Amino acid sequence: MLSAASAAVVRATLPVVRAHAVDITAHFYPSMFAAHPDLLHLFNQGNQADGRQRVALASAVVAFAEHLLGDAPGGGFDMVAERIAHKHVSLGIRADQYPVVGRHLLASVAAVLGDAVTPAVAAAWDEVYWLLACRLIAAEARLYQRAGVEPTALWRRWRVAKRLDEAVDTVSFTLIPDRDDAIPDFTPGQYVSVAVDLPDGRRQPRQYSLSQGPGRGSMRITVRRVRGTAATPDGMVSTHLHNHLAEDDSLLVGPPAGETTLVPATSPVLLISAGIGITPMAAMLDHLARTQPTRPVVAAHADRSPAHHALRADCAHALAGLTHSDCLTWYESGQHNDSRPGRMDPGILPLTPDTTAYLCGPVPFMRDVRSSLLRRGLPAERLRYEVFGPGMLDQHTG
Ligand SMILES: Cc1cc2nc3c(=O)[nH]c(=O)nc-3n(C[C@H](O)[C@H](O)[C@H](O)COP(=O)(O)OP(=O)(O)OC[C@H]3O[C@@H](n4cnc5c(N)ncnc54)[C@H](O)[C@@H]3O)c2cc1C
Ligand code: HEM
């Protein structure tokens, strides 16, 4: 809990910190990387370039301050903290790195807000930072313990047992441990971080959802190549994996992590995806077909065309193994067999009073579907979603 003296200062300064939060985090990252260039290989440089990690960090700190002051709706921050802890654990973030981040973050508060940061203001925000840090460190320690991994020895070498072209610009890699290591337990919906050494010497991590359920003696990821445009470069890691990762090659992989997982129950499941957002849904479908074949499941997917629709055959196979299932598909390219033309119409997605919905795809798509389902009465706690980037849906303005 925040001390009474700090609470008063944080309440008084929260509006100015909130207004400058993104400027503070924009100052923070370059200054931390200048002092600790070794950290560059831990942070996704794509997210640095487009500013999304900046917004995610700023939003998390402000949301935590609001939570401490009792200004935020109850329970909201738990989801944010859980998401951050899982992401940190997938990357091997350690407790001893928190002082470094804290020092640079508070120095950036002082640099951006200038004279407004009196010693009392600095002390109050230091207290906020450390309350948040302690909470994350504790959550991460629990996750490391549960996974049986040490953050210092997190990355393991896996071998590509199979590489398969799935759809336009989309390849699956089936991974098995390089040595006699056991395959870790995971829950459908989870992801792994992979780290690649790029030709320019940089190491870069990225997350990929596991696209098959557990219990298959392997883990599979399915990667869509991110193509550049006139204004943006090709994606670093997806391009590297597509161009260079062949069968029998090895890959550094972290432990499965992620909190957007299939809830064990018997109630109806609605899986909604677009584009490469199908990957966690494919794992859930695979798992449901093998472990709960009588559970009611609807899979709804939108894609550009049948040629872009990855994992279609796997999902059809899993759906055929479910006794109460339905499949709804939309293609922007037009009607194809029993699909619908155009974009997904969330208004026709079937909802029952006890449906749990899982959502993954581009942010604007997820925002549309989510607001439609909430309007139709689905409680927010029964709508679980995965964002393929930093932050949660509420933090994305684009
Ligand atoms: C939990 C989670 C699960 C995921 N699951 C999957 C999955 O199953 N399958 C999958 O394919 N992806 C998945 N992703 C996305 C994946 O992690 C990567 O983000 C994706 O592969 C792109 O990485 P990249 O290195 O190729 O692109 P990056 O190099 O990171 O680039 C990303 C974007 O930023 C732009 N950019 C980069 N640098 C600049 C610059 N200087 N100026 C302007 N723009 C720039 C690029 O043009 C590109 O559009 C997941 C992400 C998360 C967080
Ligand atoms: C209180 C302290 C911290 C807060 C509030 C915080 C917050 C966040 C948030 C909000 C994200 C984005 C999560 C998501 O994907 O949605 C994130 C990711 C990340 N954090 Fe932290 N973090 C903290 C400490 C640290 C520390 C000590 C390190 C280690 C140097 C670290 C390294 C990372 C990395 C590498 C990522 C992934 C970045 C990316 O992929 O772009 N964080 N953190």
From TrEMBL:
Gene Ontology MF term list: 2 iron, 2 sulfur cluster binding; FAD binding; heme binding; metal ion binding; nitric oxide dioxygenase NAD(P)H activity; oxygen binding; oxygen carrier activity
Organism expressing this protein natively: Actinokineospora fastidiosa
UniProt domain FAD-binding FR-type: residue ranges: 153-263
Family: In the C-terminal section; belongs to the flavoprotein pyridine nucleotide cytochrome reductase family. Belongs to the globin family.
Entry protein name: nitric oxide dioxygenase
Keyword Heme: yes
InterPro entries: Cbr1-like_FAD-bd_dom, FAD-bd_FR_type, FNR_nucleotide-bd, Globin, Globin-like_sf, Globin/Proto, OxRdtase_FAD/NAD-bd, Riboflavin_synthase-like_b-brl
Reaction(s) the record says it catalyses: 2 nitric oxide + NADPH + 2 O2 = 2 nitrate + NADP(+) + H(+); 2 nitric oxide + NADH + 2 O2 = 2 nitrate + NAD(+) + H(+)
Cofactor: heme b
Single biological process term from Gene Ontology: nitric oxide catabolic process
Key words of the record: 2Fe-2S, Heme, Iron, Iron-sulfur, Metal-binding, NAD, NADP, Oxygen transport, Transport
EC number: 1.14.12.17
SUPFAM superfamilies: Ferredoxin reductase-like, C-terminal NADP-linked domain, Globin-like, Riboflavin synthase domain-like
Residue span, Globin domain: 1-141
